[in-house]
Specification:
283 residues; 5-stranded antiparallel beta sheet; disordered N terminus; homodimer
């Protein structure tokens, strides 16, 4: 995010459960079953970037899971009240189906729980934006979960294992995750785009994966500037054959990929143009 | 469980977080990412049935997820101290990777959280054991998640949606869940067995599903009494062609299936023999 140099003061992590500095009910279905959704958002000087898109995705997810969505105005107000007015912060919002009795079946009238956390935005090396990152192809294969495809839900144990694999090898900034069919899903905490002959392609995420807010912003921006962007199945071979590769999420913005496994990529024209237009640089 | 008539007194639900009647840290990775495991156990007169098997599965899961396992002796002591000495109760143990910073990657030295709950054992109609249950074939298709196959982990949102579908139709006691390849995974909160020509078969659960403790007990018992029991891929057609069908979990024990979709099944000899031997009847 352009000009997002280190915040004035470091951010003390804050946790609010339904607006209160309190613990979570241990019967909450968030912990019992991963039964909920979350959003991770970038804030600068008290304003959350793409807040409307985050709310849209959250509300769409709530509809799909039949969780009553939180009152958007109240959550906006809560963020406003607690987000540092100067500098950068990460705003994370979790919405669970709330407390429940034992058993997978949701209670007939759920009382959702809202967990808001505001924490330090970790600094990223400028070179990740200018020279690109290293990406490891993870051994872990992600399953299909068509009922959950695209959602940023709380049942994320596979992503935890992929991130663990990445950390154990310690030779890359992101892992690339394929599914059991050999299709590309995305990075361990990012979406992936490839550029071929000047046009973008990104996995369709109809069977798994998270439809990232930054992914949406990139697709919309590409359309506006006349660069094609298609959502479809992609193989690892297609990524290797790409002219440019980059990865996105709401916090980092856009990271060019310099290395995928042993293959090297130049930071390309389309990627740099998007980084410039979207102001996605810590540098 | 034989002779498990209603408990002397109703059980007031108890929640202990790391041994204390307190709330859960909202930064716990259990709620953030479904990053943990659980066991649901049947207790009678202060003793948990198949406790060793539950601990074995939990410890195996902890190994696979690289979560330090809880001290078994301490947990046994905690259960002993709080389980009602008379009557029946449900003992549920959740182990999460504990609190963590934002991000999928596990902290290098996790401090796991242990949540113990002791609650009322819901009474089940005797007819479920004697006449069998109705099973609905769920529309929801379960994905593959080979990295998590067999584990009773906390990322259970697909099971929540399957249970929701079952409850909305209200025409069956269990849902049968197939995966995206059309293979049988199990019931919404049970494992499934079919009997053909006197031998048992149950899904192998190498790509998804939970390896239930009662499933293990049934397989071991079948072997002891000279009934074959194979773990393999099963299709819905094979279930329809079975002589007998039944479903299992640690609380209900064994429920014969009387109806699968529109197909009717008799409560068979092998099923009744297992129910008798394992004392799995509320009746």
């Amino acid at each position: 995010l352009a000009g997002l140099t280190a915040g004035i003061a470091s951010v003390q992590t804050l946790w609010l459960v339904n607006g209160h500095r309190t613990g979570l009910d241990p019967s909450d279905r968030g912990v019992a079953y991963g039964d909920g959704l979350f959003e991770t958002m970038a804030a600068l000087d008290g304003r959350v970037r793409y807040l409307d898109y985050h709310f849209e995705r959250l509300e769409d997810g709530c509809r799909r899971l039949a969780i009553p969505p939180p009152d958007a105005a109240a959550v906006r107000q809560e963020i406003q009240s607690h987000c540092p007015l100067r500098g950068r912060a990460v705003v994370k919002l979790i919405v669970t189906r709330g407390p429940g009795a034992r058993g997978y079946g949701p209670p007939p009238s759920a009382q959702p729980t809202r967990i808001l956390s505001i924490s330090e935005w970790p600094a990223r090396p400028a070179a990740h934006y200018t020279r690109g990152i290293r990406v490891r192809v993870c051994d872990l294969r992600l399953g299909d979960a068509p009922a959950l495809a695209g959602l940023k839900h709380l049942s994320r144990l596979e992503q935890v294992l992929a991130a663990k694999e990445l950390a154990e090898h310690g030779d890359a900034e992101q892992g690339l995750v394929l599914d059991t069919r050999g299709h590309v899903v995305g990075g361990t905490s990012t979406n992936v785009f490839c550029v071929r002959d000047g046009a973008l392609a990104t996995p369709a995420l109809t069977r798994n994966g998270v439809r990232g807010v930054m992914r949406r912003v990139v697709i919309e921006t590409a359309e506006k500037i006349g660069v094609g962007a298609v959502e479809r199945d992609l193989t690892l071979d297609e990524l290797h054959a790409a002219d440019e590769l980059f990865m996105t999420n709401a916090l980092i913005g856009i990271w060019p990929v310099a290395k995928l496994g042993e293959a090297r990529f130049a930071v390309g024209r389309v990627t740099l143009d998007l980084i410039r237009r979207l102001g996605c640089s810590d540098a």
